[in-house]
Amino acid sequence: MKTIYLDHNATTPTDRRVLEAMLPYFADRFGNPSSPYGLAHDPRRAVDAARLSVATALGCAPDHIVFTGCGSESDNIAIQGCVAVCDGPPGHIVTTAIEHHAVLHTCRHLERCGWHVTYLGVNDGGLVDAGDVERALRPETRLVTIMHANNEVGTLQPLVDIGAMLQGRGVTFHTDAVQSVGKVPVKVDELGVDLLSLSAHKFYGPKGVGALYVRPGTSVSPIAFGGQQERGLRPGTENVPGIVGLATALEIAVDEMDETIERLRTLTARLTSGILESIPDVIVNGDENHRIPGTANVSFPGVEGESIVLGLDMEGIAVSTGSACTTDAVGPSHVLAAMGLTPNAAQGSVRFGLGRHTTEPDIDHVLSVLPEVVKRLRAMSPFGSQDS
After folding, report:
1. What is the pLDDT of residues 116-155, one digit of tens each?
2. Which tens digit of pLDDT belongs to each residue from 100-114?
3. Domain assignment of residue 303, given as a range
4. Which of 29, 75, 203, 313 could be cross-linked to 253 through a Cys-Cys bond (beta carbons 3.0 to 4.6 Å apart)?
């Protein structure tokens, strides 16, 4: 049975071209890039070239890029490192209720340390209002952290408006761009951000490597110690193969972006329209006009989303109910709850993440299988399809 993989928001397969670029640095060019002798020169040049490549993609200088172990680590360095340099008593942070848990859990940790955090709500499409961000600011606000694209519904936030509003206010602006980098154009100056997190495995690079953009003049303290690698913000021997893979994957994603965006938008429209036409009582979640291509979050009230995932898995189709980082969590998605969905609709949500290798026949096969899966599960459910 062919596997149809539709969970690209959780992770992507490493592109073969990326793997080929990485392979020499596992064995033949294995030197520690911080060492002084000749064997270390190739790895050092590879890291420097990768830093330049990532910087070019984001529209910044190479020394503004810090390589990390993943997007969650980048978020933690950005948020905890930003507040650690603040003098005086704990201040105030503004974020949203729909952030990835790498941001939400870090903010909750800081609340236990005395910081005050405002968690802004969103509309029914998952969009935060830039005006709400401005109204939430206080004299003691030190950080605003708002994701670029939501990992569950794909909604793109109005960062350009928020960044422009924050100019000159002395407030650091961070964005978790893990779900958007490599999928849509991302330029740090256009967004107006001071800190930006990304992760390679979301755009066909390897797992276990990420990066953090740090705008010049933005003070960030390290949260781990042990060496001076990566400007002292991420001590430890650099993951040279991973860093090479991240840069190569991002280069490919940027080069192929226009074509990929158009193709994924067409396929996503085919999927969502097919679901709406063939299955009654469904809800497509997220803002239709401000969404990363390839993401479709659909609620099937009256059915547990996990049951649909398992039913499709038996047919060789891989989808998810939301963030891979919260698969074992009990209860409905915090993102969908913040968007105003009822518990029944939120519990019945499924996320379809289309990718580079998704085809029309893949989508058509899903549409041939999904209606019967939902019909069978609804017939077994004591709640039927009522949204309550």
Report:
1. 999 999 999 999 999 999 999 999 999 999 999 999 999 9
2. 999 999 999 999 999
3. 4-12+257-380
4. 203
Distance CA 302, CA 285 (A): 16
- Ramachandran region of residue 247, left (φ > 0), alpha (ψ -120 to 50) or beta? alpha
What Cα–Cα distance (Å) separates residue 365 from each residue in 4, 109, 187, 266? Answer: 9, 44, 37, 16
What is the helix (H) or strand (E) element at residue 262, kind and residue range?
helix 257-278
pTM reported for the whole predicted model = 0.95
Looking at residues 47-56, what average pLDDT do you find?
98
Edge-to-edge strand ranges of the sheet holding 349-353: 283-285, 295-299, 349-353
Domain boundary among 221, 236, 255: 255
- Residue 132's CB: how many other CB atoms inside 10 A? 16
Annotated active-site positions, please?
325
Residues 301 and 247 in one domain: no
Domain boundary among 202, 221, 255: 255
**Structural domain contains residue 44:** yes
CATH number of the domain residue 32 falls in: 3.40.640.10
